[in-house]
Specification:
single chain, 306 residues, mainly beta, Immunoglobulin-like, 2 domains, 4-stranded mixed beta sheet, 4-stranded antiparallel beta sheet, elongated
């Protein structure tokens, strides 16, 4: 009995000593520990950048916001910096290109080490072709121009200042519109009250439209400008040129839009009989200035200087 008691007491003493030594070792600040390896942040570099436009035409004083796309989408730093090759012609800030003077400028967008460019061509608001001063852009909303020569602008029925969009369907179209025609009255021409042209401009007469078709002085070709189809007229003597986009036509019946990119129809301010008016029409095989179109059609307008 006593022997068993001594054995038990001995075992308790040994266990107590082992526990004390273990605790002492854990609490000893001099005991070496394994260091934790720091985690290195993952960096995803930019591999590409592109712009929604690589070529752009604008008239002086207008602007366009370029959109940059950086790849991959999970790049760590997708910051884009913008520069202009000639700030005297066009400036850029956060993608917004603003034209200053006639000429060209190259806009560069950079993300990481990747770059891409857009060449901007800046034209004046008017150009002289065979003695007539034409606006370089179509009429947009009444009293305004589009911001580039390739834009369709708005559609108008003859001798009307009511504008219709260059895309989509419309409601409220006046299929009986006759342009306010009264024989022998001022309505025999497009009146200044109903003229949508900006200040200093007006709808051209048929005689002025015909000056573009004098083959000895002007050449005309079906072409593309910044991926837009249309007709380009060039003054043989001066080299001046002007581009008319093929904006299509809106139907006399209900304003349905058709032939966008394949035909261009532009009003003159001159009537042709009791119900028609003269216009300019062009497509890939031909161009002419004849009448025979009712005034309830919707055409685009390219004005001349007063």
């Amino acid at each position: 009995m006593k022997r068993n008691l001594f054995v038990a007491i001995g075992m308790v003493a040994v266990m107590s000593l082992f526990t004390a030594c273990s605790k002492s070792t854990k609490d000893d600040p001099t005991t070496p520990t394994t260091p934790t390896t720091p985690t290195t942040p993952t960096t995803t570099v930019v591999t590409g950048i592109s712009l929604d436009k690589t070529n752009l035409s604008l008239t002086v004083g207008n602007s366009y916001t370029l959109t940059a796309t950086v790849t991959p989408t999970d790049a760590t730093d997708k910051t884009v910096t913008w520069t202009s090759s000639d700030a005297t012609k066009a400036t850029v800030a956060n993608g917004l290109v603003t034209t200053v003077a006639v000429g060209t400028a190259t806009i560069t967008a950079k993300a990481g080490t990747q770059t891409t460019t857009c060449v901007v061509t800046i034209t004046g608001t008017s150009v002289v072709i065979n003695g007539v001063t034409w606006a370089t852009c179509n009429v947009a909303a009444p009293g305004t121009f589009t911001n580039n020569p390739e834009a369709a602008g708005m559609f108008y029925q003859w001798n009307s200042k009511v504008s219709w969009p260059a895309t989509g369907t419309v409601t409220g179209w006046d299929s009986y519109w006759n342009g306010g025609y009264t024989p022998g009255s001022a309505s025999d021409t497009w009146t200044s009250t109903n003229d949508p042209s900006p200040i200093g401009y007006r709808v051209p007469t048929n005689a002025e439209t015909q000056t573009l078709f004098v083959s000895a002085k002007v050449t005309g070709i079906w072409t593309t400008q910044n991926s837009v189809y249309g007709e380009k007229f060039t003054d043989i003597a001066t080299g001046n040129s002007i581009f008319f986009p093929a904006s299509g036509i809106r139907s006399f019946a209900d304003g349905t839009l058709s032939n966008t990119g394949t035909y261009g129809f532009y009003w003159s301010g001159t009537v042709d009989g009791a119900t028609n008016a003269y216009r300019m029409k062009f497509y890939n095989y031909s161009a002419d200035w004849y009448g025979h179109y009712e005034r309830n059609y919707g055409f685009t307008v390219r004005p001349v200087a007063k």
